[in-house]
Amino acid sequence: MTLPQLQELREIEDKARKELAAVSDEEALESWRITHLGRRSRLNLLLRGLASLPLDERRQVGETANRLRSQLEEDLSQRQAQLSEAAVTAAVESGRLDVTLPGRPLAMGRLHPVTQVLRDILAAFVSMGFQVVEGPEVEWDYYNFEAVRIPKDHPARDMWDTLWIDYARNEEYPMLLRTHTSPMQIRVMEQMQPPVRIVSPGKCYRHEATDPTHEWMHTQVEGLAVDENISMADLKGTLYEFARRLFGRERRVRFRCDYFPFVEPGADMSIDCPLCEGQGCRACGNSGWIEILGAGMVHPEVLTNVGYDAERYTGFAFGLGVERVAMLRHGIEDIRLFYANDLRFLEQF
Amino acid sequence: MKVPLKWLREYVDISLSTSELARRLTMAGTEVDAILTTGRDWEKISVAEVVDVSPHPTADRLRLTTVDLGGEQMTVVCGAPNVAAGQKVAFARVGAELIDGHSGEPAILKAAKIRGVESAGMVCSEKELGLSDSHESILVLPEDAPVGTPLGEYLGDTIFDLDITPNRPDCMSVLGIAREVAALSGGSVREPPGDYEEQGRPIKGRLSVEIVDRDLCPRYCAALIEGVQIGPSPPWMQECLLAAGVRPISNVVDITNYVMLEVGQPLHAFDFSLISDRKIVVRRARPGEVLMTLDGTERPLNNDALVIADAKEAVAVAGLMGGAASEVTEKTTAILLEAANFNPANIRRTSTTLKLRTDASARFEKGLSPELAMVGIRRAVRLMVELAGGRAAEGIIDVYPGKKRITRITVTQERLRRILGLQLPTLQVRQTLTSLGFGCRWVPPDRYVVRVPYWRTDVSIPDDVAEELARIIGYDELPITTLRGAIPPAQPQPSRELRERVKDILAAAGMQEVIAYSLTNLESLTKVLPPEELRERPPLRVANPMSQQQEYLRTTLRASLLGTLSSNLRHRQGRIALFEVARAYLPRPDELPQEMESLAGVVTGDRPDRWGQPTGEPVALYDAKAYLEFLFDRLGLTVTYHDGEEFTLVPGRTAEVRLDDQRVGLVGQVHPRVAAAFDIEQDVYLFEVNLEAVVPQVGKPRLYQPLSRFPAVEEDIAIVVDEGVTAAQVQAIIEAFPLVQRAVLFDVYTEAPVPKGKKSLAYSVAYQSLEHTLSEAEVNRERRRILDRLKGQVGAVLRS
């Protein structure tokens, strides 16, 4: 014989379950909760009415009612989870974007290509223990020429066409725009005792007509290492390492004899042309090689000029053109682009 | 220097291929700039004989020239003035590839009708054959040129165009290159003969030579050749000269040129009959002395110039060029031949002063050996006897005040090892040096005594010997090692480090770095600097500028930056933000200028929208200022902004940037008149920072502010002040209160109901304590105090 309350509980359960299945949003769910689990719900009223039942009936109905209550609460939270999951899915579904649209533009700034390449060059040498030092661009004739063995009336002066400064005592102490960074060899050695291991970047100037491969203002990096027991083998090793870092391990490197008054023996270094892979093209003058720097062992007279003991100390020096390296690296064919500062050029780097 | 390989083979056997020979020369220091092949493009061109020249029926300047091609005859139109019957010429048939005489480009010869006459070929000039730039007259070949022979077979050669470094005047000769080739390929050199029969009377007593300025002339040799017959030089000599790029003139002149190219010694031939008193004096020019040189130019000489004079006057500028008055002519029968040696620096100075560079001066200025003079003169006299029918006088006058001892260098094995980084076997050292003409004696236990051959004036110290060894053995053979030894302690480079940081920061903020020329023109500087500043501190000027555009060292980056902006505005819309970090050159009396690291930036154009397109809303002062705020924030520096004034900028829209009360920069709107001077029509904002002034302040670490564990109370305060009161003043007052953790300005309002002449400033103020949670009473008290002080100090009233 079934108690009428139990019959009612079954009805409550059936109705609640049926309605819950139909609930489709948070709002409906809340009204379902109020209807079926709220203070005024049939279930709650029934539970409140239990007190009037005899003990064993009260226990039997109470147990069933409480079980139903917790079952419905469980169903509620499950349904809630389902609904919010569905809502997220719906939101995501409706929020599809065209991912190929461009990003919202940031103001994009860039460093000048010469700055970028110069930094890479310096970093290569810094990692080999070289320090970066800088010096004046407006120089005395003494540092630019005399102290590096290019006296007045020396034919080697033809290698450096000079822009002279117009000032009162130009006859006695000629002032000029430095034609190379080599005066820094003297300035550095005047300031310090060996061991010396420096690189010195900076602008240099030549009295020169411009064309695709010549520019009157250019950036050079000078290098100098002086110590006991430095040989040409060290010069080769240092510059090989530099060339590989900058141009890649697969590049071949060539040293040949060349003349600069402040080194003996003198050398220049070429890499096999990266544009034609050494086969010979316009860029390398069909030789397959591109000269990238001049170098050599510091001439003993230069060491003596700064008061070093040329018997005890030897060293090497080199000088390289930054624009030249940048041109090779980026395939630039006209050196004049660097200082024309056309944004259409600069923004490519 | 052009070296024809046919000629080179006279002195050395070449066992290597052309390309390998070129490679070895290049590696050893004599760079082969180009390998020229004459004859390769000379198909359909052959040697022909002119058999008849007759007038063109309708053109005065043209002639009908009939040539014999060895059995076949052709008649063509020729415009050259020097064509004559009997000449051997180079004749091109239709289809031959020639260099166009006018354009200089290669072109295929076509049949043409010239003023009504059919012409199916051409008598060629040197230029048309690619031999030289000479185009006025046709190339006349030596008489014995074989008619009908393809020209390539007859004249073709491989020519090395060499780049000789200034230390190697000995390599400015075919013999010098032969010595290099011998050393590099293991051959031996055949010296050209210099012996001859002396059939004439002794020179002694018939010519006197006096060197007055012995410091400028270490040696003077003179020889006399009588009974010469001036005429063309033999074909083989003309071929050599042509291939080396020198035009044949006459036997005597050709011999002097030939010997100079052959052994490297410049020579000069005088007509002996035109030398007054049979006397040669080597002396400095007299005041006001003028000489007409061979090229027909009157040359005033300063008294540093050395001349060769006779008893009366100068007859040559020493080492540069002879005088026209004593020139060898067709009538000449007696030759006074000079081979001398001159001071290199003096030759160079005179050459520079006279703006005259000759093949002779190019050699003398690099320091030839005086020993070479005798070698050269003997060789030339021999050739004159042989080829010009002369009688050589007995003896050669040789005045030699500058004779030097043979150079001997002691070179230790240790020094060679230290320079080259490897220990060379004694045998290899001796063989290598000997192959170059050096003497080398091994002195046990550890050294060599090296005797330098006279022609190597560039070798004087042990390291020079090391280079000789290295370049012949090959630099590629030297080992490769990495630097060992102590790395010197690092010196701080604050200025450089700051500069590079500034570049990174501004690029990160969206500005583009530019690098402009250091030289500018006065006009540009005048646009951006006040006249009094230019007057008081004029920029340094280049004495020999390349153009007026690049004459002055810039004292400010402003002008070039505005110029760069202007040129980019021609093809660019939208926002442009540029900066440059570079040196400004500030003159100092009798000193090198101060090279001041400076920063300048410009910004202009419209702000971009979501698509990066211009919005029509132009950037303002505060966009430019934002870059500076970002920069100084990243540098960890606190700067303040104050009303400022600057020549280039709009008053009232210019701020001075101060760091510790020192002016370090400015920011403002470029005055429209200044902008217009750079052809810029839109608003431009500019900032500048003197980085040198900033350097000492950079690098101090920022002190951390502890975070409070207690909540902050935030509220908005809006006040009304006179328009003249600055935001910075108000900000400073509010932030001075201990409980104010921060105050952020979020609105400036000047419209009604704010009264005219006033403005409303709204701040979001956060109160916070490190010790406890603030009570409402505490916040109220602090706010009251703030408002009281604002009222007292800047007359602020709370906006209701």
The tally of beta strands of chain B, per DSSP, is 44
- Please state how the strands of the largest beta sheet of chain B are arranged side by side: 29-33-34-40-39-38-37
Unreliable sequence segments of chain B: none
Give Rg of chain B in angstroms: 41 Å
Order of strands across the widest beta sheet of chain A? Answer: 1-5-6-10-9-8-7
* Biggest beta-sheet profile of chain A: 7 strands, mixed
Helix/strand-derived category of chain B reads: alpha+beta
Distance between the termini of chain B: 92 Å
- Rg of chain A, rounded, reads 43 Å
Helix vs. strand class of chain A: alpha+beta
β content of chain B, as a range? 25-35%
Write down the overall geometry of chain B. elongated
What would you call the quaternary organization? heterodimer
Order of helical and strand elements of chain A: HHHHHEEHEEHEEHEEEHEHHH
What general form of chain A does the structure show? rod-shaped
What is the residue-averaged pLDDT of chain A?
A: 92
**Number of helical segments with 4 or more residues of chain A:** 12
Enumerate how many helices of chain B there are, as a single number. Answer: 21
What's the helical proportion of residues of chain B? 25-40%
Write the layout of secondary structure elements.
The complex is a heterodimer of chains A (349) and B (800).
Chain A: H1 4-22, H2 26-37, H3 42-48, H4 55-94, H5 113-126, E1 131-132, E2 138-140, H6 141-144, E3 165-166, E4 175-177, H7 183-191, E5 196-205, E6 217-227, H8 232-247, E7 253-257, E8 263-272, E9 289-298, H9 300-305, E10 314-321, H10 322-330, H11 337-340, H12 343-346
Parallel strand pairs in A: 1-5
Antiparallel strand pairs in A: 2-4, 5-6, 6-10, 7-8, 8-9, 9-10
Helix pairs in contact in A: 1-4, 2-4, 5-8, 5-10
Chain B: E1 2-4, H1 5-8, H2 18-27, E2 31-38, E3 45-55, E4 63-68, E5 73-78, E6 88-93, E7 97-99, E8 106-108, E9 112-114, E10 117-119, E11 121-123, E12 140-141, H3 151-155, E13 157-163, H4 174-185, E14 208-211, E15 219-226, H5 235-243, H6 251-263, E16 268-271, E17 279-284, E18 290-292, E19 298-300, E20 306-309, E21 314-317, E22 321-322, E23 335-341, H7 344-354, H8 359-364, H9 371-387, E24 391-392, E25 397-399, E26 408-412, H10 413-420, H11 426-435, E27 439-443, E28 447-451, H12 462-473, H13 494-508, E29 512-513, E30 519-520, H14 522-528, H15 531-536, E31 541-542, E32 552-553, H16 558-569, E33 576-588, E34 591-604, E35 606-608, E36 614-618, H17 621-635, E37 640-643, E38 649-659, E39 662-670, H18 672-677, E40 684-690, H19 691-694, E41 713-722, H20 727-735, E42 740-749, E43 758-767, H21 776-794, E44 797-798
Parallel strand pairs in B: 14-17, 29-33
Antiparallel strand pairs in B: 1-13, 2-13, 3-4, 3-6, 4-5, 6-11, 6-12, 7-8, 9-10, 15-23, 15-24, 15-25, 16-23, 17-20, 18-19, 20-21, 21-22, 26-28, 27-28, 30-32, 33-34, 34-40, 35-36, 37-38, 38-39, 39-40, 41-43, 41-44, 42-43
Helix pairs in contact in B: 5-6, 6-9, 10-12, 13-17, 14-16, 20-21
